[in-house]
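Researcher: Structure for this, please.
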Amino acid sequence: MRLIWLQAAGCGGCTMSLLCAENPNAPDLLAGAGIEIAWHPSLSLETGAEARRLLERAASGEDPLDILCVEGAIARGPRGTGRFQMLAGTGRSMLDWTRALAGRARHVVAVGTCATYGGMTTAGGNPSDAVGMQYDGAHPGGVLAAGWRDATGLPVVNVAGCPTHPDWVTETLMLLKAGALRPRDLDALGRPSFYAEHLVHHGCPKNEFYEYKASATQLSEIGCMMEHLGCVGTQAVGDCNIRPWNGEGSCTRGGYPCIACTAPEFEEPRHAFTETPKIAGIPVGLPSDMPKAWFMALASLSKAATPARIARNAVSDRVTVPPTIRRPK
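Model: Predicted structure, token format:
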């Protein structure tokens, strides 16, 4: 399968994330799966006239295009022309190129939250009128219409994340290569369910502190970050703590709260990322599927039952009280 990757308005972080994949690295993994990277602006040798001709052949149908990957949001301004963001040397806007290539591609994959829903590129008033490939924030319809589907019946496959996990990208591409990704394998926002059916909370190393509502009050502390430090891992989709990045890390493992970067409009939560908004002392954002009354009752019981070890460790920057050693009778 031939793949073309376009980088639109964004930081390039999803490409950087992909290149950090290890054992195996992404180029070797994709090549082994039979996926050819026909062109990537940061990885390919073709530049200038060669790159222009390659894109023109794909857009005209002269060369096959199996997968179009788009990284970064697409600027529609000014006034729908897309000329705020031109693809250098082509005389055409990125908006024009993405639409033209999407019309030829067998599948379209939006890589990262900017490409899926607009992401960080759209924050702060969005003066460039940037959108995702098939979403404008949480609203269907972006560069492509809400009803757009590829030749196999799939919408744009939204591999959301900021940056997105390298394994999510490679697994999605390999599923497409195998013909094993169907509309029912995507959630309501177009994200592959193999990672979107999990919460970031699953596998979080701070879960013992969460169970007892033993909370950190500063970023340097190891307690649960939901109550005071803005963590929304109990609401955000992603298997970040089940399959840590390169087998080692995640945001919460590194001591930073989950900010739900796989969700539309995460970029403007209307409060600091490291702050938990509350009403009458109760967090506004409660765990998924949990009624407020249940949470209040469970939180009260949990706090009352918190072991001294957990309470002390929660507000420390390391384990200060180790678990009690149970000697056999």
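Researcher: Any notable elements?
Model: The longest helix spans residues 48-60. Residues 2-195 form a domain with the Rossmann fold fold (CATH 3.40.50.700).
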